[in-house]
Design a protein that fits this description.
Blueprint: H1 2-14, H2 22-34, E1 52-59, H3 67-75, H4 88-103, E2 107-110, H5 119-130, E3 133-134, E4 137-138, H6 151-155, E5 162-165, E6 171-174, H7 180-194, E7 198-206, H8 207-213, E8 215-216, H9 218-234, H10 239-247, E9 253-265, E10 268-277, E11 285-291, E12 293-299, E13 302-306, E14 313-315, E15 332-335
Parallel strand pairs: 1-2, 2-3
Antiparallel strand pairs: 1-7, 4-8, 5-6, 5-7, 9-10, 9-15, 10-11, 11-12, 12-13, 14-15
Helix pairs in contact: 1-2, 1-9, 2-5, 4-5, 9-10
């Protein structure tokens, strides 16, 4: 169980504010452990060049639902207590099955679409539950808001067709689109239309093509970061400075969340967090823009960092990374 928690913690760190929560990741993997299934991954080099690989991933906003949204859900006669696929794994597995039926290809290996506390763990859990392998790698090297910010896009590999399944049992196929941005838009609006995150399956390609697009060893790296944070805590040492040093990064601010601004739009969680430094950072005001994940950081009104570099907010003292939906005004945080 400690290894599961370490991995989910590290994956949440690389999620840079998005990619699903630590709690969701721990739940997904501990469920597989309780069922007696083997959890883990294989080296990218060990995947057959001829066998088919795919990604199973979620799509939708991570923003909290408002009372207005809950009323709209009720107006469609939808009862959250009677979802057809209440478990996220069910949606992802059904999407994989539908993709296999659509293409006639047997999917042997799963590749996480990105790193994130929920998303990486979900893909590995789905591999365990559906009798497939997962690889030690992913297609983004972090969490990203858009499909076209991935290795397959850069390497010229296929995204489509996509199979999408939501909690109500609505199934859709995206067979062709004008470009990747339209595929992203259509997929997002399926989740908007259903009021729930969708489980998708795509990036169907032979192992040889996957190897040209994947970021290698990122699952192992996530585990190592999560373990480092825990071990530093247990020794009474500072996990914030330790993880920054391990990654060759910087601690930009330590203080508290002075302001949170956000909106739920177009299937994304948009907003800003303003961090006020204290102690050695008392002269620092940090503003971070997020679109699900953190992408731009201003220090005293000067742009200091942008994605694809990681901008990560963690609990000061514990080093526990948080998704942006969990960060609230007044929290004591550090930004790496």
């Amino acid at each position: 169980m400690t290894e599961i928690e370490d991995f989910a913690r590290g994956a949440t760190f690389f999620g840079t504010g998005g990619g699903g929560t630590y709690e969701a990741g721990v739940e997904a993997l501990s469920e597989q452990l309780s069922a007696g299934r083997e959890i883990g991954w294989v080296d990218v080099a060990d995947v057959s060049d001829d066998g088919f690989t795919a990604s199973a991933f979620g799509m939708g906003s991570i923003a909290p639902k408002t009372q207005e949204t809950h009323r709209e859900i009720e107006s469609f006669g939808l009862d959250p207590q009677s979802e057809v696929y209440p478990r996220r794994n069910e949606r992802l597995i059904r999407a994989l099955v539908h993709l296999e039926e659509l293409t006639g290809k047997r999917i042997e290996v799963l590749v996480p679409g990105e790193i994130g506390g929920g998303n990486s763990c979900a893909c590995i859990a789905v591999a365990a539950e559906s009798g497939r392998l997962a690889v030690d790698g992913d297609y983004a090297g972090r969490a990203v808001p858009s499909i076209f910010q991935t290795g397959p896009y850069l390497a010229g590999k296929p995204l489509l067709p996509l199979a999408s399944v939501d909690g109500w049992g609505n199934v859709a196929f995206i067979e062709s689109t004008y470009n990747w941005r339209m595929a992203e838009r259509i997929g997002k609006y399926l989740s908007v239309a259903g009021f729930l995150g969708c489980g998708l399956a795509g990036f169907l390609m032979p192992g040889a093509d996957m190897k040209e697009a994947v970021f290698k060893d990122t699952m192992t790296q996530s585990y190592e970061i999560g373990r480092l944070i825990r071990e530093k805590r247990e020794r009474g040492e500072d996990p914030v400075t330790a993880v920054a040093a391990w990654l060759g990064g910087w601690v930009l601010c330590r203080g508290f969340v002075a302001k949170k601004e956000w909106t739920d739009r177009e299937g994304y969680y948009w907003g800003h967090h303003t961090f006020m430094g204290t102690g050695a950072y008392s002269n620092v005001t940090l503003k971070v823009f997020f679109k699900n994940e953190n992408h731009i950081c201003w220090c005293n009104d000067r742009v200091l960092a942008t994605s694809p570099d990681l901008i990560v907010a963690v609990e000061d003292g514990t080093g526990q990374p948080l998704t942006n939906s969990a960060i609230q005004e007044g929290m004591e945080m550090a930004v790496i």
